[in-house]
Amino acid sequence: MLSVDPNESQRLIADTARQFAQRVLAPRATQLDLEGGFPAESLAQAAELGLLGINVPGELGGVEAGAVAYALAVIELAKVCASTTVAITVSNMVAEVIAKFGTPAQREEHVPALCAGEYIVGGFALSEAGAGSDPGGMRTRATKTDTGWRLSGSKLWITSGTHAGLFVVWARTSDEPGARGISAFLVKGDAPGVVRGKPEHKLGQHGSTTTPLDFNDVELGEDALLGEVGQGFKIAMMALDGGRIGIASLAIGCGQAASDYAVGYARERQQFGAPISSFQAIQWMIADSATELDAARLLVLRAAWLKEQGKVFSREASMAKLYASEKAYVACDRAIQVLGGYGYTREFPVERYLRDVRVTRIFEGTSEIQRIVISRDLLRRHSSAS
Ligand code: COS
């Protein structure tokens, strides 16, 4: 049964993530935001603790802690550094997708290496300049050769694009329109013909590199194909269902951290001869953020629990991501309001949370795409019931 309280092992994973975040991420988070770069050292330490394979089977080097524990851990990490957290969530997603769809040889070759940090992290290369919300419109192509496949094309918005040692790359393998002609491939970052582009200059998440990737006639063996030919689109959708639980959790972490900071500040800050927490205007903001973040957390726990039970969770994951990302953004905005002018400066952490959380309404499917997934599912169920 779905429990609101974490069990012993889920609590242990969340505690591990919290302690790691305080010990390793906290001292670096502000500087990482100011200077940018890539948190390779922190990620190596995350791997040592099992945080790159939280929901990955133990026989493949993972912690096998389940999707609920994963969500709780991501919330704790994101409370401190969303940039490092996003690299961790994408790498977990890549490890999970290979564990689920890979051949025994692919699983053995790549999943333990991903969990151990040997690839630094994994990357998820689906989007293109002309195919973001509509990945079925992709143009990257994989052509059959005598020895395997030749990959050519360009991807965009690839998280950890500067450093990821292994990418899952989606490409068109037939001229069938839309989703059906797409397959998934495992491509090492150092394969000849893979060119990593310059990181984008972004509003937030400055310690997460987001780059284009070019594939210039990259020669791949037969063993690079993940799943069956033509199955790639569904693999991507299933991976994103799980990924959306991770992004929803990341959003909650940002929103919670900003709100917690604002509550502490409101108790200290004196105006009109009293702490501003004594004013109803501030109390209502605190109450609204707490209520919405708790609701988001429950939606995430439900989606994660369904995933853990092996049930269909696509709609619930989209609901969790839609609600958590929208409400966490508002919570960060309210936190700035509580801090007033100070909240708008870099002397205080809440503006970073606002900048970092903004993209959760965009990546791994925009809020508008989540609404499509949710409404299509409801309408389909309604029509099959009537
Ligand atoms: N799990 C399994 N299969 C799925 C699925 C899911 N969650 N969602 C769709 N599919 C299957 C469908 O059942 C369909 O299969 P059949 O052809 O056998 O019927 C196939 O995939 C195509 O589905 P659909 O027709 O719904 O595809 P659309 O092109 O209409 O796209 C949306 C659907 C919009 C939901 C999809 O394109 C999407 O999620 N877009 C956002 C992509 C995204 O998140 N990008 C960010 C990348 S990471 S930064």
Summary of the model, kept short:
This protein is an alpha+beta fold. The protein is 52% helix and 14% strand.
Plain-language structure description:
With 386 residues, this protein is an alpha+beta fold. The chain folds into 3 domains: 8-120, Orthogonal Bundle (Butyryl-Coa Dehydrogenase, subunit A, domain 1); 123-230, Butyryl-CoA Dehydrogenase, subunit A, domain 2 (Beta Barrel), CATH 2.40.110; 233-385, Butyryl-CoA Dehydrogenase, subunit A, domain 3. It is built from 10 helices and 10 strands. It has helices at residues 8-35, 40-48, 67-78, 82-101, 104-115, 232-268, 280-308, 314-339, 350-358, 367-385; strands at 122-125, 141-144, 148-159, 166-172, 182-188, 194-196, 210-221, 225-226, 270-271, 274-275. The strands form 3 sheets. A 4-stranded mixed β-sheet has the order 1-4-5-8. It has a 4-stranded antiparallel β-sheet with strand order 2-3-7-6, with helices on one face. Helix 3 packs across helix 6 (232-268), helix 4 (82-101) runs antiparallel to helix 5 and helix 6 packs parallel to helix 8 (314-339). The longest helix has 37 residues, at 232-268. The radius of gyration is 21 Å and the shape is globular. The chain starts with 7 loop residues before the first helix and ends with a helix. The model has no long low-confidence stretch (mean pLDDT 97).
